């Protein structure tokens, strides 16, 4: 499916999408309460702006997010490149389990199609690689969905370099969704995932796999809107993350100050500069900043017009290298990482 949008398009392993996508998770969980009406209005506004690459998952809100997205795109399906994911589910104690068994692939896909109200999913990801199930078996079952016309393209999320190599031997992988931003540079670090000195980014590009960075705004931190841990409500999951706590929080604010300074020089907001940096990493990179509000969506879309010079990029790289941020990405308790070596 291809379309021409005001934002322009990029290609993820054969799937043409808008240059910028929209992460829909926050409309159902993790970032405090959300208004259903405003969430649907945000998706409609995204399509009007040419942000037509929508990202969801069956685990977001335990199915609620797929239902919400399905409702929002009803009547406009042909405008949308629709991505969803499977393999994660919540346990009774609030943790996560991974299930990459072939039989689960089929069950989850059928359920997602029903909730979304569509006949085909444009991009279907394994949300986390199941270390107990050979990835060849999981991807083989996903490939059957392509053969059946229920899925157009396959993706992996937070997979290691070694898993990418094994997956593409079974079926082409269009996209890798992983966290990548000015404060999360793990994709660029060599030696991850049992692939020797290779980077995950390098292996993906070796096989023509597009990159879909989630949390390209550092979970909102790089916008400059978060200045104290008190900014998080009780139902905001960020308050439990090491990067947002204690000394790490204060140290990481210095990175935001540097981003804010350059953004002011470019006539942009800090968030727009952070998104522009991600998009500048290659024509095969399509970030999916998440928001549940039209105002933030419109701000994010403005990042596509910002051009960063080689000097700008060098300046940002000097400030925000792989070791610049304090604290791990996730708390250890209750989180399932799959086979990705990064935390």
UniProtKB/TrEMBL annotation:
It comes from Blastococcus saxobsidens. Transmembrane segments: none annotated. Pfam families: Aldo_ket_red. The lineage of its organism: Bacteria, Bacillati, Actinomycetota, Actinomycetes, Geodermatophilales. It comes from the Bacteria. GO terms for molecular function: oxidoreductase activity. Keywords: Oxidoreductase. SUPFAM superfamilies: NAD(P)-linked oxidoreductase. This is Aldo/keto reductase. InterPro entries: Aldo-Keto_reductase, NAD(P)_OxRdtase_dom_sf, NADP_OxRdtase_dom. Residues 20-319 form the NADP-dependent oxidoreductase domain. Coiled coil: none annotated. GO terms for cellular component: cytoplasm. Gene3D superfamilies: NADP-dependent oxidoreductase domain.
